[in-house]
Design a protein that fits this description.
4 helices; mainly alpha; 0% strand; 2 domains; 98 residues
């Protein structure tokens, strides 16, 4: 597995994790929110693989990446973003999507 950012992972055995959640129930909310975000992200990717062709997936990825970065950190950001948006709109219109 490859990480895009420096990442630290931990492994917690089931029994200590359950004990921790019983002592600190507020951690359940954090855990469920994190798991929900992961499920949404994976579901979106799986849906894209099924319903979008390669061109649309690339355009969607470019659009997401350019929107995540600030205009100052990407040279030519406005033109890249405009191009990705235009391509996505064209593809969506061709396939009857919004």
């Amino acid at each position: 597995m490859v990480a895009l950012k420096p990442t630290t992972g931990i492994v917690i055995a089931r029994t200590p994790l359950i004990a921790l959640m019983q002592r600190r129930p507020e951690l359940l909310d954090v855990l469920f929110r994190s798991m929900g975000a992961l499920v949404r992200r994976l579901t979106e990717r799986a849906t894209d693989l099924v319903f979008l062709d390669l061109e649309a997936r690339i355009v969607k990825l470019l659009l997401r990446v350019t929107e995540e970065r600030s205009a100052s950190s990407v040279k030519g950001f406005p033109s890249i973003l405009a191009s990705a948006r235009w391509s996505w709109r064209r593809w969506s219109a061709r396939h009857g999507l919004r």
